[in-house]
């Protein structure tokens, strides 16, 4: 039974459209749902159905046309930049569909940066980053620059970077898009480890139906509507 006190975030009557010349294209039409502590939720839906748009709005990286995003019981609509930064540093971690790694830093520092920013010691942060990279099968890649990695390796570095702060919630946009089955499972196992050990919640968009079927809840976004399946 889901407990209302364990609600990490909710979206209420969320709408988003884009204009295409003179047409208005509705991408999200009145979306409602809540994400709870320690659950893994998968969102499937065809390419262009609006999964990334929805995740960006939930992650406070984009604004809806109307509707609310409630995080930790607070309506985020009028959050200042520093309140949004606080959510990103301490509550919600976003893993982008297209990595956004920093090319001027090596792999180890890319992963360590979010904890260095929190004023942790440089050496401790790098050790945490190294341990996480080892777990995600990237031992020996620490000194490489992101440009020297394969797409799937970069994806795992981005994942490590989004997990290193042990956020309450990870929003992951196609986290296994570039990974083979075995590496996808390695990554999903680590999601489960974080869920069981720290109560982390995950909401992920994916085209991988096998992965989606392992989530606690599965939702489908089509024609602007989100339904539980
Ligand atoms: N900034 C924008 N301006 C106009 N249209 C946009 C913008 N961003 C997204 N769209 C449109 O919104 C729709 C949904 O895009 P979105 O990236 O959310 O889809 P998606 O479900 O994540 O697709 P994929 O599975 O390919 O990643 C697409 O038709 C896209 O062209
Ligand atoms: Mg997308």
UniProtKB/TrEMBL annotation:
- Keywords (A to Z) from UniProt: ATP-binding, Cell membrane, Hydrolase, Lipoprotein, Membrane, Nucleotide-binding, Transport
Q: What are the GO MF terms of this UniProt record?
A: ATP binding; ATP hydrolysis activity
The protein's matches in InterPro entries, at most eight in alphabetical order, are given as: AAA+_ATPase, ABC_transporter-like_ATP-bd, ABC_transporter-like_CS, MacB-like_ATP-bd, P-loop_NTPase
Q: EC number(s) in its UniProt entry?
A: 3.6.3.-
ABC transporter domain span = 9-229
Family (UniProt) = Belongs to the ABC transporter superfamily.
Q: Which PANTHER family match?
A: ALPHA-D-RIBOSE 1-METHYLPHOSPHONATE 5-TRIPHOSPHATE SYNTHASE SUBUNIT PHNL, LIPOPROTEIN-RELEASING SYSTEM ATP-BINDING PROTEIN LOLD
Query: What is the name listed in the Swiss-Prot or TrEMBL entry for this protein?
Result: Lipoprotein-releasing system ATP-binding protein
């Amino acid at each position: 039974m889901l407990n209302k006190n364990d609600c990490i975030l909710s979206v209420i009557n969320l709408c988003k459209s884009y204009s295409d010349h003179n047409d208005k294209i509705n991408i999200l039409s009145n979306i409602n749902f809540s994400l709870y502590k320690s659950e893994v939720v998968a969102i499937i839906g065809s390419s262009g159905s609006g999964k990334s748009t929805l995740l960006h709005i939930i992650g406070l990286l984009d604004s809806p046309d109307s509707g609310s995003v409630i995080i930790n019981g607070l309506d985020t609509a009028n959050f200042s930049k520093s309140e949004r930064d606080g959510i990103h540093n301490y509550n919600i971690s976003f893993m982008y569909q297209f990595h956004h790694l920093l090319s001027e830093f090596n792999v180890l520092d890319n992963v360590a940066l979010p904890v260095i920013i929190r004023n942790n010691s440089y050496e401790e942060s790098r050790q945490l980053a190294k341990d996480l990279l080892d777990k995600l099968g990237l031992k020996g890649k620490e000194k490489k620059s992101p440009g020297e990695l394969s797409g799937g390796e970069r994806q795992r570095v981005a994942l490590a970077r989004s997990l290193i702060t042990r956020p309450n919630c990870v929003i992951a946009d196609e986290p296994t898009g570039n990974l083979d089955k075995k590496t996808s499972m390695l990554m999903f196992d680590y999601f489960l480890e974080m869920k069981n050990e720290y109560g982390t919640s995950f909401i992920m968009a994916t085209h991988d139906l096998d992965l989606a079927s392992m989530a606690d809840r599965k939702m489908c976004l089509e024609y602007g509507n989100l339904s539980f399946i």
